[in-house]
Amino acid sequence: MAVKLEVLEQQIATYGKDGIEYICITDMARFKHAERTGSIIGNWMRNRNTIEFLGIWEQLNNPGFKVIEFDDFKKQAGLNSFTLTPKQWIEQTNAIGLISKAGRYGGTYAQKDIAFEFASWISVEFKLYLIKEFQRLKEQEFQQLGWDIRRNLAKVNYLIHTDAIKQNLIPDTLTPGQINHVYADEADLLNMALFGVTARQWREQNPTLTGNMRDHANMHQLVCLANLETMNAFLIHQGEAATDRLQQLNALAISQMTILSKQPTGLLALSGKGNN
Q: I want to staple 127 with a disulfide (CB 3.0 to 4.6 A). Which of 44, 97, 119, 196 is the partner?
């Protein structure tokens, strides 16, 4: 994660390192008192419950955690003379649940579970809104990931498709312009099989949209398109004529889209105007 959360009008930075997601508790402390963030975090870390929570989290997630040093801190926690900064905790226990960053975008960052614990100490209301915002962000990332995987799958299969065209449909005597025309014709064969229109027809029907029809396809259509590209490559290798391939690909598209359309609508991540 490298984005900002917005909780009760407070911007909160996030950070990812070694597969761990961190949330800036310095930004969270500003919600309570913008001018005393260091003191707020320091008071939280003086608490015995906080030390125990941090120590248990590290023992569960960090093989390099120094338990003896943790026990020393736990014994002192709660005493009037006891003070502890995030930097001291990190350096003396080899902790990974907290990160202290310097510079313009610096501050103290905590692994998300620890950050939620700190949020409880700040305000129960703040914690609930923080969790809700964090979940919203993760759902958004999941949808985008699904979209990227399917888009990249279509791109990979496109390379297989174009290689089949190059090996079987393009004689050496063609000019570069003629070669591009062959590729375009094969792309339109797939477009016709799945979308029912050529690229040119789609642009004429959608003059206000940018990109091409594949940029505006939904996840189900991209999955189907990837399968059509693979099938078309196979049929090209088999020497099937374009008209015969179009009929077979259209039948396959109808079959697959019928199956895919029965999936829950939550699996859709539309880009553009929606179903084509």
A: 119
